[in-house]
Amino acid sequence: MDGSKLWEQITPFRGSDSGVSLVEVLVAMLVLAIVMTGVAYGLNQSMGLSRTSRDREAAANLVAQALDEARAIPEFDDVADAEWAETVNGVDFNVRRTVALQTDDDTPIPCSGGVAGFWRYKSVNVEVTWPNMVLPSPVTGDTLLVPPIGFFDPTLGNAAVQVLNAAAEPVYNARVQMDQLDGGGFETRYTDSEGCVFVEGLTAGEWEFTVSRSGYVDQEGNTEPQQVVGVAARSTTSLQFDLDESATIVADLPDGAASSVPITLANTHLQPLGTAVIDGSGDPRTIADLYPFEAGYQLWTGECSDADPEGVMPDGEPYYPDDPATTRGDAVTVTGGETSTTSVPMARVDITITSAQDGHTIRAYHDNDFVPGGGDEEQACADDPPTYTLGTASSRQLTAYLPWGMWEIRATWGQYSYCTLNQEPVKLVPSPPLGNGPTSNSVALSYQWC
Fold first, then answer.
1. Is the pTM of this model over 0.70?
2. What are the pLDDT digits (tens) for 333-348?
3. 8-state DSSP, 314
């Protein structure tokens, strides 16, 4: 046999389409990737479900444990709201126990309004949550606790205290202290998620309730508001407190403003007249411990009623009937836990000393009779009229800022004291627009001995 023919017989035939092309390789790799992705996704889902099942099982055990602990509390009064953390298999769980008092008709006792029936037992709910929960619902459990025989005393009463913020939402974890005024005992509790504290078994008589939470104030700026109420036997007394995170206003005054001038805040909720006078000194002025009213606060300087651009005299007539700027201006909005800034306009006074001496000390004395010659009923200041030191005149001139109203400007030089020859005080009025600049009043002072 020919050698070449033998070689052809033992060598495989190679046609034009023999082997695997590049396209076929890419398609095969794509198919393999799809299959592997599906397998990986399935494994991941399986592991996730397994982890979720394991976490929910641990949470269920924590719920059962928390309910057992609630049942084991020796003193029935001590079964109250609580929250704590537990770690199981490296997972941090949050456990919250909520306790509610139930009446005869199986309804929870509310904090607001009167309670017709006396409470009979406590319902306990335990909720467990943890980070990265796959299912949105937490694991929960409930039980009922019946008080021991002889627990109810017909000579005792109850108190229901509710704490709400500026949005009428419940305030959680506010401290409520109850003191009996006749020298008896006291109780301290903390509000639940409904902003409620229900205190049972109080001795009949007068009790003082004090509410507080760090950084919170009531509508009057009190950090520990109080109420005194009477508690009667076999009845429930309801109280409500307004408490919210305090706000702060930083008020800028014009350069040259009287350093000790107070600032008046206005809001219809402020008692008793809708305003509050805030004493202070320096510039800017920081006003803290403000309740975050939705309407905010209007501000102006001065404590007398004629310092108010919308002020009225005792007879009801406005102080500034013919002046165009007879509004207080826009309110400063405030938010609990935050600081707002504003500028407070004042009346500008340009003072010129008609004297050969220089270096006069200038003072402003409020004229309490807004209408010259008026009686006591015309007085703008409830207390003694204020006096402000405005500064020292340089080159016999001084620019200062005062609250609106009636003012007498006086000067002293060395040991000598002078009074103005003007018989009528200077009337400083609001200027339009209120927020864009003060009224300029030019005052030339001549002197006589006073």
1. no
2. 999 999 999 988 888 8
3. T
